[in-house]
Design a protein that fits this description.
Elements: H1 3-53, H2 57-62, H3 77-116, H4 123-134, H5 138-150, H6 154-157, H7 171-197, H8 202-210, H9 215-223, H10 228-244, H11 247-252, H12 262-267, E1 271-272, E2 275-276, H13 278-298, H14 300-308
Antiparallel strand pairs: 1-2
């Protein structure tokens, strides 16, 4: 092979490599452009809402929604007024959401443990009922739910508790919501935990049985410690669902009374006969969404592990 042939082959090879790099570079640029467009598509509404929450009414009218206000149009009054109006609703939502979320996840975990790690007849029909419970819409149970709680004088039955500090008769409404959301969250929690427990190693559970451990001891010492990532998934999902839920609260509480959660209080925020205060409503919306964002930040790593099916 002559020297000219070798040089020509090397030149062709370098040219092919350069073309490949150009092709990859073009695809990567296109990918980044698409990702940037998607990010803009999802973030612009949030940016417009956040910017609007810091505007006066005049700035809202005279500036574009996504543009920041000028020095004369900037105000923190919307956030202060929203916090003052929604503070009791935020407390009620926390009192309602935290126990309902924890109880729903715990009962779902126990049910899934019984459906996967314990052998007994009738597991498939029982699991089918849990699956069916996932797909029952809220609207289908509103009337029977209202009739059910109207037959139970919970406030009267728990009257001795209202003499305790920090407890008021209107907390009976929150207890009704806690029980309702816990019951409604158990099916989806059970389905999620069952899929997770199906991937657990049977050797550890079997070794514990050989050592004489009972059913609840195996759950407490082996299954529960390995359930952290899935608990994070269920807790984030349930917390978000219960926190943002409106229909059950509207039926059981029925207005903006002292037991109203924040989603009910938010409905009438910034509305009057004179019009809608968009800045106040945006501040209230972001204030209401803040707890769910904090929960996702706290449990974000465990959530990713649970979604990936890691133990």
């Amino acid at each position: 092979m002559s020297q000219e042939t070798v040089t020509a082959d090397a030149t062709d090879g370098e040219s092919s490599t350069s073309d490949l790099r150009d092709a990859i570079g073009g695809k990567r640029i296109l990918l980044y452009a698409v990702l940037a467009l998607i990010a803009v598509y999802f973030l612009v509404p949030l940016e417009a809402g956040l910017v609007t929450s810091f505007k006066t009414n005049e700035a809202v009218i005279n500036t574009a929604p996504y543009l920041p206000p000028g020095p004369d149009g900037f105000t923190l009054q919307n956030w202060a007024e929203a916090l003052d109006t929604l503070s009791s609703g935020l407390v009620n939502s926390l009192v309602m959401t935290i126990p309902a979320t924890v109880l729903g996840a715990l009962f779902g975990s126990l049910a899934a443990y019984g459906l996967t790690q314990i052998s007994w007849k009738g597991q498939i029909p029982i699991f089918a009922l849990f699956v069916a419970g996932v797909f029952i819409p809220y609207q289908a149970v509103l009337v029977p739910l209202s009739q059910f709680w109207s037959m139970i004088p919970l406030e009267t039955a728990l009257s001795p508790l209202w003499a305790l500090p920090l407890l008021e008769p209107y907390h009976a409404d929150l207890i009704e919501l806690i029980v309702t959301h816990t019951s409604y969250g158990i099916p989806i929690s059970t389905v999620l935990f069952r899929g997770y427990y199906m991937g657990l190693s049977d050797e550890m559970v079997e070794a514990a049985r050989l050592d004489g451990a009972g059913v609840f001891e195996i759950y407490r010492r082996i299954v529960l410690p390995l359930s952290g990532p899935m608990f994070a998934v269920v807790l984030i999902y349930q917390f978000t669902q219960i926190w943002n839920e409106l229909l059950f609260a509207l039926i059981l509480v029925g207005g903006t009374g002292p037991s109203a959660p924040v989603t009910l209080s938010l409905v009438g925020l910034g509305t009057s006969l004179e019009g809608v205060d968009f800045g106040l409503r945006m501040a209230g919306a972001f204030l209401t969404a803040l707890p769910t964002l904090l929960v996702f930040i706290i449990f974000g790593d465990q959530f990713a592990q649970g979604v990936a099916g890691r133990t």
